[in-house]
Design goal:
Two copies of one chain form a homodimer. A seven-stranded parallel beta sheet of chain A has the order 8-7-6-11-9-12-10. The first copy, chain A, contains twelve helices and twelve strands. By secondary structure, chain A is an alpha/beta fold. In chain A, α9 links the parallel β7 and β8. Chains A and B meet through α8 and α12 of A and α8 and α12 of B.
Chain lengths: ~280, ~280
């Protein structure tokens, strides 16, 4: 159905618009099992890597003109498309500027055993515990994807990865990465140990400087909250506590620390592959 | 003068409040040569590392109780302190949550020749060109400080480093680092070359992967805009174009790329120091 034949959503107070807008709230996301994907870049990644999760695409006529290829991919994948007025789009979106396009998608996380099964020998995993800041959490997911991590495991006491701010910060990484969420920290650590995954706590208090950390085998980076600190029981449960040598205390945020650790793991894997 | 003896600023529409609030705008900052420092952490760094630049401290009674040591340091440094109502503080601040405290400070950048004079043998420098996103720019400054860079040089076509969003993202790094701003890119590159500083462009298109880059001598990381790209004339002016090996194209933002590059430089300096 071409854009001209589609009905136009023009009432920002309609039930459908309210249901989409409600996905800005965690309760509505959990009830429906769906979440908001905002902006052309994230929608493109959704359709490219997890098209079967896409439930609906909402876009303005202007956005469709500018990103015709996105509507084409959605059509080919059988995703229902709705043309919206600017006002309707703004009412649906969580962010001020979704560039005329939002999608609704089914959750893309997987059960912990499935995600663990996908982890291969020598792989890098990320474990997020008590991470509360959406931007930091999203950037860690983005870094995990950029540096080829095999999976991200998110503890139950962390920010919802389907929070629109997290989704925005991942810039599509959520659709590339095996992700498992909502597991108690102790259970996550135990599951990793059982699979022979070495647990490396990333923490400013660590006694092992990053250059001395052993990144050669299958390992998980265990990351804590924004102050870049981990709870004592989490630190105790890890095999090594690793710190990044810095010029001033507390001068890295979680996203920066994670970026450095994940890059180090990727560099180690790459140098091993060359040997 | 103790808090009880100080006059209370209670009129959010007063001339003084308007003048402080105006510092959210570039024109007012340039006219006055001052900028806003928001929140206890940033104010603490201002008073600890650049107290002579502090012009005034505004705080609520609650914030003064919670951070008595900050008011003490300001008093000792002769910085005028004003107690404000919550309403006045909110009217002054650019951010929604400055935790009851803002300061006004004189610009802390220095002339380019002075900053260049402070660069020692083997040091790392950051050159920012056409960086527009305040959060990215601030995080790069934060990373430069964390990883012991000797200076940051900001081109004229970049975001204002005194933009409150940049200042917030630096988390005080602005007060630790020699910074020079507003210089045309070509002039910045030429000045570095004259001093024998090798110019390393950080760019996704680079033919030298980071592990192969020579970080041993005095060098500058030349960083471009948010899409992590540099203008052709900037690339041409650099000695080497370095890329970070990643699993997917365009999966790092500027702040992440800068963090990785600056960490690599710091690690190289550290390993040289150990030899």
């Amino acid at each position: 159905m071409s854009a001209a034949d589609r009905p136009l959503l023009s009432n920002p107070r309609s039930e459908r618009v309210k249901q989409v807008a409600a996905l800005g709230r965690r309760a509505a996301r959990e009830r429906s099992g769906t979440f908001l994907v905002e902006g052309p870049q994230a929608v493109r990644e959704l359709l490219g890597y997890a098209a079967s999760a896409a439930r609906a695409l909402y876009l303005t006529a202007t956005a469709e003109e500018r990103h015709a290829e996105i509507a084409d991919v959605a059509l080919a994948a059988g995703v229902p498309i709705w043309t919206c007025t600017e006002e309707v789009l703004a009412a649906m979106a969580d962010t001020g500027a979704p560039q005329g396009m939002v999608a609704v998608a089914d959750r893309v996380d997987a059960p912990l055993p499935d995600v663990l099964d996908a982890i291969g020998d020598g792989d890098t995993v990320v474990v997020l515990t008590h991470v509360r800041d959406p931007g930091n959490a999203g950037t860690v997911l983005r870094g995990a994807s950029a540096f080829g991590a095999a999976a991200v495991l998110v503890s139950d006491a962390s920010v919802d990865v389907y929070n629109p701010k997290v989704v925005r910060s991942t810039v599509g990484a959520l659709f590339h990465l095996p992700v498992s969420i909502g597991i108690p920290v102790a259970e996550l650590l135990e599951a990793c140990r059982e699979r022979g995954i070495r647990l490396l706590a990333a923490d400013g208090s660590g006694s092992t400087p990053l250059p001395d950390a052993d990144l050669s085998g299958t390992h998980a980076w265990v990351m804590g909250n924004e102050a870049w600190g981990l709870a004592p029981e989490v630190l105790d449960g890890c095999d090594q506590v690793v710190s990044i040598p810095i010029a001033r205390a507390e001068s890295l945020n979680l996203a920066m620390a994670a970026t450095v650790c994940l890059h180090a793991s990727a560099a180690t894997r790459a140098s091993r592959a060359r040997r």
